């Protein structure tokens, strides 16, 4: 089963997108800028609105995060990551169901949400 997953188009696309994203210099610069802005914001976030430059740092962080998230290579990677996670969720649900319908699987995916007491993301196999 693992070999088939690794040979699948979804897995191969995920790997290619991951490599492409991590090798892209623009993405690396955006990620570094985001990290710096996040660290700067984290230093004052505990003080909330009373901290000097709170709103400015918060806006700068959000703007940088948005630029990173909207970069085409990051977006492609995240899409392929989500698709692969969906496949993995389906596999684990099928495996769990072969053992018992009472097995609870926490997929973390609202698509598989059930009416169980474990809340969203849990699914009975």
UniProtKB/TrEMBL annotation:
Q: Which domain of life is it from?
A: Bacteria
| Record Gene3D superfamilies | YheA/YmcA-like (1.20.1500.10)
Entry's PANTHER family? REGULATORY PROTEIN YLBF, REGULATORY PROTEIN YLBF-RELATED
Cited Pfam families: Com_YlbF
What's the protein name? Uncharacterized protein
């Amino acid at each position: 089963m693992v070999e088939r997953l690794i040979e699948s188009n979804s897995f191969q696309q995920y790997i290619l997108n991951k490599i492409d994203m991590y090798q892209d210099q623009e993405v690396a610069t955006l990620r570094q800028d985001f990290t710096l802005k996040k660290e700067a914001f984290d230093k004052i976030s505990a003080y909330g609105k009373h901290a000097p430059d709170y709103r400015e740092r918060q806006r700068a962080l959000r703007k940088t995060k948005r630029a990173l998230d909207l970069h085409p290579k990051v977006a492609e990677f995240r899409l392929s990551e989500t698709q692969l996670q969906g496949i993995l969720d389906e596999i684990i649900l099928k495996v769990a169901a072969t053992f018992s319908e009472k097995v609870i699987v926490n997929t973390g995916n609202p698509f598989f949400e059930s009416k169980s007491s474990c809340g969203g993301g849990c699914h009975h196999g």
